[in-house]
Design goal:
Layout (H helix, E strand, L loop, with lengths): L2 E4 L1 E4 L2 E9 L16 H24 L7 H15 L1 H14 L3 H17 L4 H5 L1 H17 L9 H11 L4 E5 L4 H8 L3 E6 L7 H8 L4 E3 L4 H4 L5 E5 L4 E4 L3 H22 L15 E6 L5 H6 L5 E5 L14 H14 L5 E4 L14 H7 L11 H6 L1 H14 L5 E5 L5 H21 L7 E6 L2 H5 L1 H5 L4 E4 L1 H9 L17 H16 L3 E4 L7 H9 L4 E4 L4 H9 L3 H13 L3 H7 L6
Parallel strand pairs: 3-4, 4-5, 5-6, 9-10, 9-16, 10-11, 11-12, 12-13, 13-14, 14-15
Antiparallel strand pairs: 1-8, 2-6, 3-7, 7-8
The chain binds phosphoenolpyruvate and magnesium ion.
The site of phosphoenolpyruvate has 11 residues, from β10 and α20.
Amino acid sequence: MSIQVFGIPVSRGVAIGRAVMVASSRVDVAHYFVGAERIEAEIDRLHEARNAVSAELEGLKRELPPEAPHELAALLDVHVMLLHDESLVGAAKVWIRDRHYNAEWALSAQLEVLARQFDEMDDVYLRERKADVEQVVERLLRELAGQAGAVSGLSAGGAQAVRDFAGEDPLVLVANDVAPADMMQFKRSVFTGFVTDVGGRTSHTAIVARSMDIPAVVGAREASRLIRQDDWLVIDGDAGVVIVDPSPIVLEEYRFRQRQSELERARLNRLRHTPAVTLDGQVVELMANIELPADAAGALEAGAVGVGLFRSEFLFMNREGALPDEEEQFEAYRDAVLALQGLPVTIRTVDIGADKPLERLSQQELRHEHGLNPALGLRAIRWSLAEPGMFRQQLRAILRSSAYGKVRILIPMVAQMGEVKMIFDALDRARQQLFDAGRPFGQVDIGAMIEVPAAAMLINRFLQHFDFVSVGTNDLIQYTLAVDRADEAVAHLYDPWHPAVLQLLQQTIAAAAARGRDVCVCGEMAGDPAFTELLLAMGLRSFSMHPARISTIKQRVLRADTRLLRSRLPGVLASDNPAQAWQQAAPSRP
Ligand code: PEP
Ligand code: MG
């Protein structure tokens, strides 16, 4: 029977494919596909983990003190029995063999299947045994995490393997939540769409999905419970609807829409190398947001005139153990700079914390592990200033990359004047260290992200220190409206059109322009065509967005006349309902 699940549309278009479920687990679980050549080794890993856990449990039982309640010994027996039950490890092997899942993913997928079976049992005693299976799986996952040979990342062979097993069928990923670290692995993967139970319009999962330019729906609450492995799904990324098991008529309608949007994309692509100039001759800079150096080529291909935001924190994720050292970071930044062939690359220092933890944690785990409100905690520049050695190391790596092209440094989440001094002191020391070591580096402009209302309100003071500013509207909206950008429960309150948000944006753009400083918007508003004209009216001439959005925004720019747009602005800023006022002030089309 066909059902519909509603969520928040975050990445446009239509995806049709079979569901691949990614189960959530209390333990940090990596999800990746293993190549055909590694299947047997992966099954061996699982066997080794089972044997180790079995020995551990037997040992625990042997060492139980005589006064221990005898239920405890019985419980350990149950766990050993479950461990050797074919429905657990035996079935997980099937996931590895048939689906090419890594051992951890296979186990958590099988746990999901068993958990459903337990939930459906009438007998209360049996139903409660679900917790035992969960504990056994948790032990296995911990054992696997500590094993040598655990691989992180999707190998090229693995990507091919999953294509082979899926045959012609496209695949859609369905999960309660996907940690940003996992999302980066899936970025190089084969999924044609994403559905998650949690998340908001500008949560990082949504941002990465958009950067992959594939349809995605987040905040679909019950999706991972209602959808089963292998179900056929249609993701309507424009409406935020997931249709499970669609009828042939519905499927045909969506296939038609899919073809239409492919044609539209091809048409827009032709604008790739057309300069973005408005009807009244205003030159507009359309730049790219990237997450990895490998994205730089796609940015050029899409017609970007530079990188307006390189989210360097993604280099720090998906790592077993040590964080990237200066050399590794330098190579990554240099590669991006070289790929841009002389165009500017704006490298943001790490924005770790909040919904981008170093560890692979889901939103719920994040809140649990990192206190109630990580977005107000040790995040971004606060984290860097708390780790001065690491901060200088990153600054040195970025400065060194400036010997290969035009580089700008962008500091995230600046809010205090005291931070400004610490940032420039750190920069002075980093430069001095490079100078003493005889390492070359060039002239680098330093910019601040304006994404905390305090910084927007004190913009003139910040502009005394920084060469340029870039408005992070994703966070500016979150902090101005006190609405967690990753929480689907308050997603309806996350409103870029809110008069307070527009006022802060307008003030920031006007203040930078008055001082002759560059100002860019690099939050998701910059890549949303609904705001292009409004931002142009405010005087913005530099936008940074996912490369896939550049052609769409360029089309808007080419049709705009900033003189007419400017005249619409005062009424809109004064209105209680700016979205409506902006529409009403539009000249009626003949
Ligand atoms: C923003 O906050 O708008 C921004 C661009 O930064 P991020 O989305 O990475 O927090
Ligand atoms: Mg931000």
